[in-house]
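Here is a complete protein record:
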Amino acid sequence: MKTSRRMFLSGVSAIAASVIAGGASAQNVVDDILKAAGRGNWDDTFDARATGRGKVASTLPIFSPQTISYTEQAIAQYQDIVARGGWEQVPATKKLKLGVIDPDVVPLRKRLMVSGDLPQSAGFSESFDSYVDAAVKRFQARHGLPEEGVLGKYSYLAMNVAAQTRLGQLETNLGRLREKAGTLGDRYVLVNIPAAQIEAVENGRVVLRHTAIVGKIDRQTPIVNSKINEIIVNPYWNAPVSIVRKDIIPLMRKDPDYLKNSKIRLFAPDGSEVDPMTVDWSTEEAAKYRFRQDPGAGNAMASVKINFPSPDGVYMHDTPQQSLFNKLIRFDS
């Protein structure tokens, strides 16, 4: 899991990865980090959609009795929606927004009415008026999306999740909330995996909240409950065998200077340093060595690494790819 370099650095006693399993282990270095010789060639494409996203103002922790109560209320609401047949899919072919007059606004209105975002009295006009605009913004806010009032890819995806599926998610997470709420002590860090956010909690209130990067769909961040035992400033990065085989060996076959340019050194099992030119890169011989990247601007861990015991080798760290924190969907590790 990656944290921004504005990340908390002091006095944290515990960490609990939250609500939905999602796996950034030591294998959490993205391909373009491996292929870059130094800082400056990172993903600089900022996601403009994220700029309109408001920050959560509440100091209420996710793992709290109040959250359990709110989730129970939501379950009752969604049980009623499901019993009434749920909602129909909204055509996702157009970017609907304020001022548009289109037949697709009618099913949009119906969908927003079922979920309670739009009052029944708003009617079934084809006009995307101020009532629909406010309802869409409310829907987007409830689903962690930028409150733009514009129907785009991610809004349609969230809107067209079946009511039965949403009910199942609520019921699953209610069990997790009941299991953890009140058990983490007075001071802890919570990584909310599906939201890609971090809460630092003290005495029942959130004192810090940060954006995070979590595991890719095919390398999901596992749920873990552990204690932070070490914070390393300017860490080394040791490449896991899977990345050595999948990424580094092929890169060395293309560019024999890759390790040198990336400030990655090679060590034998006995601890002695190995000259990369003495390794047969046409085979997987190199997988038996340890690949260690020196601290510095291009290091995959960037400026800080936060360790805690984990059977999956999970940890939190900074990243040279600071632009990733501006993305709306942050499953990149």
